[in-house]
Design a protein that fits this description.
This protein is mainly α. The chain has one domain (3-152): dinb family like domain (Four Helix Bundle (Hemerythrin (Met), subunit A)). The chain is built from 5 helices and no strands. The chain has helices at residues 3-18, 25-29, 48-67, 90-113, 128-152. α1 (3-18) packs parallel to α5 (128-152). The longest helix is centred in the last third of the chain and has 25 residues, at 128-152. The chain is globular. This is ABC transporter. Residues 26-146 form the DinB-like domain. InterPro entries: DinB-like, DinB/YfiT-like.
Amino acid sequence: MNDQQQLLVSELEKLLNEGTAHVGLSDAIAGLPKNLRGVQPHNLPYSIWQLVEHIRIAQWDMLQFSKNVKHQSPDWPEGFWPKEAEPADEESWNNSVTQIKNDLQEFTNLVKSEDLYQQIPGGDGQTIFREALQIADHNAYHVAEIIILRRLMNAWK
């Protein structure tokens, strides 16, 4: 890998894992009271739990698409959004957050090991580079919504 490629991979890794210019998921949910995970404030159509689960499902889908030509995405939109406003229990919450972190690490490993510009088999022109940008953009968008919900519930810094 030449120096320019190494720099690009390093910057993508930072963008995916640290957020660089914005708060990451870990910070956005840190200290969130358990009783607020399922609240849908001010007639909004989703709760923090639903946003976390949506991040998990969408990121998992992008990871699987990037590495498995036989992957079948869930139906849109119902397959990407949980119906339940709150997690069934603490284990469900923890499993979702853990899977987000683990899948993000696995995708970061793809960024480090695969040709960023090679078209993904079975796709219509997508590359690992494009999927990396999409994951970062998608996660940042919904993490910002989590922070907004926390502000609306007076549960943010």
